[in-house]
## 1
Amino acid sequence: MSTIYFFLSILKLVVIISFIFILPAPSAAIDTEHVGKRLNVPASYVAAPYYPTPHGGWVADWSESYRKAALLIANMTLAEKTNITCGSGYDMGRCVGNSGSALRLGLPQLCLQDSALGLRNSDHNTAFPAGITVGATWDKSLMYARGVALGAEFRGKGINVFLGPTVGPMGRKPRGGRNWEGFGADPVLQAVGGALTIQGVQGQGVIATIKHYILNEQEMYRMYSIVQPGYSSNIDDRTLHELYLWPFAEGIKAGVGSVMAAYNAVNGSACSQNSYLLNGILKDELGFQGFVMSDWLAQISGVPSTLAGLDMSMPGDGLVPLLGDSYWMYELSRAVLNGSVPVDRLNDMATRIVAAWYQMGQDKDYPPPNFSTNTQDATGPLYPGALFSPSGIVNEFVDVQDGHAIVARNISRDAITMLKNVNNTLPLSTNSSLKIFGTDAQKNPNGINSCSDQGCDQGTLGMGWGSGTARYPYLDSPMDAISSRASNVKYYNTDTLPSGLTASSSDIALVFINADSGENYITVEGNPGDRTTAGLNAWHNGDALVKDAAAIYSTVIVIVHTVGPILLEEWIDLPSVKAVLFAHLPGQEAGQSLTSVLFGDVSPSGHLPYTIPHNESEYPASVGLVYFELGQPQDTYTEGLYIDYRYFNAHSIKPRYAFGHGLSYTTFSFSNTEITAVTPLTSTPPARPAKGSTPTYSTTIPPASEAYWPAGFNRIWRYLYSWLEKSDADAAAAVASTSSYAYPAGYINIQKPGPPAGGAQGGNPTLWDIAYTISVTVTNTGNFSGRAVAQGYVQFPVGIAYDTPVIQLRDFAKTNTLARGESEVLTLNFTRKDLSVWDTVQQNWVVPSVGGNYTIWIGEASDALTLGCYTASLGCRSGLMSPV
Ligand code: NOJ
């Protein structure tokens, strides 16, 4: 063995050993009260085989892109095709993911980059408010505007693929670490936020990635490792369709170019190789035309993941990165040559990727990357993950911010959710005597970007931690903004109330508290992503700070920056606590967005995108975090459809603050409500359209020479290549002619017509037929200008054969700013799908009672529904008793 190979083997061993030791160890931080041990995948939860992968290209909207892609693919060699389906390795380029190229044919390396709220690890970018903040606006135009701005920034930096939006996790688990990346604990809120983000981003020519597919509801134990499989989310088919799949279906309907397969397993089978989820649901039922990428290092096999429908491996490495190993690249070339992966499958993988590139117009004038996610310096290694890398210019500091700060600020402002406001305490006068407490009111003294991927909770909390973050170009903190507006301010930059304070009756205390969470690879203050140690309480003794302030000051206003629900019970009913504002995660625009509400430039108009309980025991036990020492942690969705408000309503638990709650400085009336029937319903949707034609190619195994290393090629150690040594390629080709591969159980290679529930992107197109439209006149009846949200919840007819949550959000609309006395007509639409349930036997969306009487409730919160419209009589009534 040569010295260099010996050296590499030792290195490999060291990396493997260190990986074993950095695995999440059972930690003292685990809260055993809320973290339960689980056993095996329960018998009734099955991941059935579904083969083959449906070819892409059968949807009319994509046919031109597929036509162009097919021309390119037909001219590609085997090694070029396998190269474009895989990343070049961990840290092997400027972006967080860098696919292989086919430069001979004009296809560049694709740059894939986080995050869903702005450019991760970059410069001269906007740090937008997080998804949960966007959800709290309930404003479709702002959701879209943020997508457009994100798309412009990603394009400006030369990024081909935007790694967002996040619509999973949905927030099933209140302690889940990444709920804040998405838009709220409801499928429709997630779906609308996700789809509008996709439309905005892709309108700029950037491929969006909807993630994480699917049921990645907890951070701990999400990844497969050498010693432990990632947890299995065990779910029934109806719950999957009606809750967690819903936002993905809407994203696909919006034309999303890419889907990221999650780390975890579903019903015992890893998402990155779960043929039922990828081939069956995503590509057949939902008619997904783009490509499926793995989450980073989520691929756990070569041939099985290929056959199950994975199209791109990211970042390309095998389970343990930086060894120069891959399940694909040269291994995929070999697998095609030896006949274990059908040529047909590789052609479809490559075609899907190239078609998405054409679909966004990236073949014309698309800029190459001009930044590096690896360093803030101008120059550095071009392949930081390589053992020896050439260096060069990596950051060109292109300013992509444009006027996006305004979009960001408007979102942060219109998300602010007023939970309580006794005696019109808010808004404040700028002359008030303000005593301000809490480190959350001011920037992190160590620097706003001092913690990598925001992996700390110091100073104003503008976002959670992990890959879903951006560096702040600046942070307009609450104190910056308050001190520039108010004249009589004293700030105590501490989370402990100083002793010896005396209050005068005119003093108003503003207390800033927060609650953080993030991604599992960083542990902050004992929380490994999920809120294990902190629970649902405010961090840094926030509860004590509020209580201590309330003991001295007669007027206390609590301002909360938070990733999700927190418990308020220790202080919410104290007489001094007069007002509470949830400012969610505002990104860089934390300051002026807040002062414009505090000082009454605008009325708060945000509404809760989740329920706030009195205490954690009000949730079903099954939504606690799972924890297991050995084997696969099992996370079984026994609560079914009943998460968040659906659960509280089903069990008649009145929460502290209901989903959708949010107060205003003014009041609104809803009048002239009209319901109109549009498309008549039938029990099941009309027959789906047949699939259109898809590209056809030769299915003959190409000659081994298509995978030979080019002569004289200068290799970079650890970089992943798709070529094989001549001897290996020839040997693989020889195997193909002498033996056949044992495919997985259930494998066939005959394309199917597709299920009745499919037929277009998102599913059967008639699912989006509008069944009923409701229009309502919203009038500002108070003394302040403001914006109202009309939330539309469907109640299914009584007596149907399906157990269904009493109310479910199906559409919403927000007024413009209405002056006193001003009115606006809002329109909400209710589709066939909105009025259907997923029937597991028929495998279709079924209207459970055609002609039955649905009640569609319209109101400003899920627990304030007094206006109902009836589909049987086509009449609406006000002054009703709220159904919950
Ligand atoms: C893992 C995260 O789960 C995913 O959201 C992210 O896009 C990738 N890492 C790349 O950073």
Note: Residues 417-604 form a domain with the Rossmann fold fold (CATH 3.40.50.1700).
## 2
Amino acid sequence: MNGPVEAIKSEKRMLLINYLNENKSRYETLFTFNQDGIFTMDIEGHLVQGNPAFEKISGYAEEEATQLKLQFLFPIDQVNKVFHHFHQAVLGQFQNFDCKMANKIGGLVDLNITNIPICVNDQIVGVCAVARDITELKRKKEEVRKIEEMQRVLTDNLLDLIISTNLQGEIIYVSPSCEYILGYSSDEVIKQNFLSFVHPDDAERTFIIRKEALSHHEDRRDCYRIRKKNGTFIWMESLCKPIIASDTLHVLEVVSVFRDISERTRVEEEAKKREETYRDIVEYSPDAVIIARENEILFINETGTRVFGAATKQDLLTKELSELIHLDYHEIAKKRIRLVTNGEATEFYEYKLIRLDGTTFFAEVKGIPTIFQNKPARHIIIRDITERKKTQELLLNSEKLSVAGQLAAGIAHEVRNPLTAIKGFLQLMEAQAESDKPYFEIIQSEMDRIELILSELLVLAKPQELKIETVDLVSLIDSVKTLLDTQANMNGVHIERLYNAKNFTIKCDKNQLKQVFINILKNAIEAMPKGGIVTIELKKHSFNKVKLLIKDTGNGMPVHILRRLGEPFFTTKEEGTGLGIMISKQIVENHDGTIHFWSDQKGTMIEVILPTAQYVEV
Ligand code: ADP
Ligand code: MG
């Protein structure tokens, strides 16, 4: 231990300590307040001094530190490096290197160490190490490196396409993804004008948007079609971003990020088409459709607009749903709405509904829970059953007719025979009892009336026995007019013909059809006890139909009578049989025609439509 080498070493150590003590006052501030850790070692690597920053880095107080040797401060894998640099310093070289130090509690601190040899009397007596904590610096560097790496990975592998252009629109950079998105290698696009790749229909818009981005120094988004190398176009969404110099505020270049949205566009277009089809199905469905939430009408289809008698959809959208439902049905409607609101579909149920003009109609209504504009709503299907009800009524009527027909046949035959006998005997008796002549006249006229009823009944009884021939309708009507003119004149009625057609040939049983017009004209005359005018119009209805309109200026009929027209034996006249209209209806229908009645206080109009034998030009 006390050999000559040891002696030299301890002498150097003394020199070092003295040197440090002598210079202490001179460097005190620099030493104590230095941000960097400073520790001094003798040439054997024993610590002799450490400043407060070193204490902070290492975790050792100065007294503890001076017990330490250099190797204890560093983890094993660093010791070699540290000693290498230490020895170089002992040999007089300044050294700077990065390493890790193990602090007192075992944590690692990144340091940059500068070793400064301390020279006293021309010999190196120790090494001063200035240790800068570079943990934070290293972390930041690592972060920057990571970001750079990430950027590289992104641009190289991006599904998006990045294109940089100069102010003139020339492409100066393109990301590698260009190759698999558009098919061009970067050489094929560099220096090309960017607009030459844009679909001609989109070019002008693209140009304007780019100009805006440049002049406003703002990002701009847009979608347009880009030409691929194979000549096809794909829809791309682009974000166009001007890069601005921080000092001059001039735009340096424009970076655009493109994303292939052809698939998205296709899916969107398909969805749109599907929606349109769905909308058409709903709009033109034979049922009215309403989408409602609470009492609010959110949507109504074309059919609905028509069924409720509205001119436009808007007229209905401003209404409340309850305004369309007859008061008698409000309770049941509320109950059913509750069911649908709770997620249950209801069955069709017959409602009385109200049109916008206040008239009512019957409809079957079904409610289905649905989602409309992302919120729960009710899908209401409304089936107008007015027509069906009418047909039902018609059916009922024709049933009544056939019963009446059967009855009539029976009655007519049964009554006719005894009547003939009575008539014969009456004539005999009349010849014998001259004085009772007035009574016989009464009996005679009553008998005539019975005969009239019977003959009308018989027409009814044999509707199927038609004798069809081709007849000119104009002359048929003219002949009926002539027949009734006298009776009309006697009642102060004038029959006017408002047609100048020469002929309308129809196929019909002449006598039956005559009966129809006689019935109609007789009713008209009878409706005008104080006189008036009957007009007869005759015109083409369609290419194979003819229309007759017979109008009178009589008293007309209230609705309750109008509704009962055609019922057998329905009459309002003292002398009436109540069979005329019923028979007329039946005859017209047997001829494949239709008959309709309109009436108000000013008169009645009867429309008869019949098929023609030939086509008529409309
Ligand atoms: P009748 O003439 O024997 O009463 P109809 O069947 O011909 O029987 O007519 C039935 C009823 O229809 C008539 O009683 C009358 O009330 C009404 N009517 C028919 N035509 C007219 C008309 N042109 N104007 C007013 N009421 C009419
Ligand atoms: Mg009549």
Note: Residues 389-461 form a domain with the Helix Hairpins fold (CATH 1.10.287.130).
